[in-house]
Amino acid sequence: MPTSLGKSLSNLMKRILFSKRLDKKEVESFIKELQRVLLQADVSVELVKKISDNLRKKCLETKPPPGLTLREHLIKTLYEELVELLGKEPSSLIGKRRIMLIGLFGSGKTTTAGKLAKYLQKQGLKPALVACDYHRPAAPDQLKQIGEQIGIPVHVNKDKDPFKAAKEGMEKFKQMDSIIFDTAGRNALDKELADELKKLGRIINPDEVLLVIPADIGKVGGKQAEEFNKLVGITGVVITKMDGTARGGGALAACAATGAKVKFLGTGERLDDLEVYDPIRFVSRLIGFGDLQALMEKAREAEIKEEDVKKIVEGSFTLADFYKQIEAMQKMGPLDQLAQMIPGLGYTLPQDILQIQEEKMKKWKAIIQSMTPEERENPSIINKSRIERIAKGSGTKESEVRELLRQFEKMKKLIKSMGGIKGLKRGAFQKVLKRFGFKM
Ligand SMILES: Nc1nc2c(ncn2[C@@H]2O[C@H](COP(=O)(O)OP(=O)(O)O)[C@@H](O)[C@H]2O)c(=O)[nH]1
Ligand SMILES: [Mg+2]
User: For residue 269, is it left (φ>0), alpha (ψ between -120 and 50) or beta?
Assistant: First the structure.
């Protein structure tokens, strides 16, 4: 059974997500494994080296940016490296006059031609279709039918000559915004097809050449893309059949081999089943990480608010503020959150990790809750009898109340010593908490 790149990547991902303690050693071994997966998927040695060097540099040699844990930072960096290859942004066909689709037989070219035409039509443009596949007898009729369905003109050459069809189509549809050329495929790229595509490319002189590959293509995607690329330089990749179980990992190999980016995804047999490539969505699925978007947002939410920073620096940071921070952190619950983001995986979390953190937070919260507002604002008034009362009220030991007060004082000092608003921005608070034994 061929190993699917998507599957291997998502297994690797699980390692990052569920390692009990993500430390440098763990990151290093993750990078090694990633190298193996990418090399197996035929991503070139140089590219694999570049990706792993970048991961090392960003995740091992430098600290995660404030507000991000190493785990989050690693996921984010991996995402950035992958989109560097696959494409950073959605693309558009506006202004592309001649669009040529190429790919092997059955990859979904003809269907995609119709989908793209419909997509352009919806944008208020006037597209047309040209049948350049006369290798398969039924192909021109298939395209005609598609054109009829969506009310888009289709040109077919009477002599079943792909070159004549292309020339006539260009003349006939001169006034249209875009002309989409559907070409022939084979089971493999043989000399006949190669020659035909080369010649068609010269005649059409396309503004956009989209290589159509199915999501389950696997590692051969790289070699195939390279071969097609030599015949007619490809400018983009369309991955079809994304509605199946395959994650489209072959795209990584195809993009790596050609430098082309993913532009569209086919998500079904109907002509509406076309999606513009969206980097976050595509990579989420590729690596099996439920919701990259949510992670990025959570990471940002974790950043400390400007107003709180000011308070701390001015020395007015109180136990009440501290309580708010603990609550915010609990809401975030990094591990919990991550688990929730992977729907239906049925993973149980390493509970012991969560408990240490949560127990401590719960106690600290209870203690602060048992204080009067004055005590929260000005902990220096908390004397022995007050401590007794607070411990009783919160169901904790007096020593625990004292510990919290000590930690709070230390924390205030530490925060002050970290100096200036600049040093405290974005996540500095989390760093401080980390020093006090919280796993973040
Ligand atoms: N499920 C699914 N089927 C698709 C998709 N795109 C194309 N197909 C089907 O794949 C088969 C081959 O498509 P076709 O466009 O004829 O491929 P071509 O030989 O490259 O022109 C047809 O049965 C299509 O309906 C897709 O995104 N999802
Ligand atoms: Mg076809």
Answer: alpha
Q: Does domain 98-277 have CATH number 3.30.420.40?
A: no
Residue to mutate (ligand 1; options 240, 247, 264, 274; most atoms within 8 A of CB): 240
Q: What are the residue boundaries of the structural domains of the chain, listed by start?
A: 5-88+289-296, 98-277, 303-435
Tell me: pLDDT of 380 over 70.
yes
- pLDDT for 291: 59
pTM value is 0.69
- pLDDT tens, residue by residue, 133-146: 999 999 999 999 99
75 vs 280: CA distance, rounded Å:
12
**102-139 confidence digits (pLDDT tens):** 999 999 999 999 999 999 999 899 999 999 999 999 99
CATH superfamily of 5-88+289-296: SRP54, nucleotide-binding domain (1.20.120.140)
Ligand 1 centre to CA of 192 (Å) is: 23
CA 304 – ligand 1 centroid, Å: 49
Question: β-strands 208-214, 236-240: how paired?
Answer: parallel
The number of the ligand 1 atom at minimal distance from the alpha carbon of 101 is: 20
Nearest-atom index, ligand 1, CA of 103: 20
- Ligand 1 site, residue 275, Cβ cutoff 6 A: no
CATH superfamily assigned to domain 303-435: Signal recognition particle, SRP54 subunit, M-domain (1.10.260.30)
Look at residue 377 in the predicted model and tell me its pLDDT.
84
Report whether 246 contacts 9 (CB < 8 A): no
Distance 106 CA to ligand 1 centre (A): 6
Going from the C-alpha of 25 to that of each of 21, 59, 72, 376, the distances in angstroms are 10, 11, 16, 41
For residue 45, the Cα-to-chain-centroid distance in whole angstroms is: 23
Average pLDDT, the chain: 81
pLDDT in tens, 259-314: 999 999 999 999 999 999 999 888 888 887 765 776 666 555 544 454 555 555 55
Q: Is the CB of 268 under 6 A from ligand 1?
A: yes
State CA 412 to chain mean position distance. Answer: 38
Distance 434 CA to ligand 1 centre (A): 52
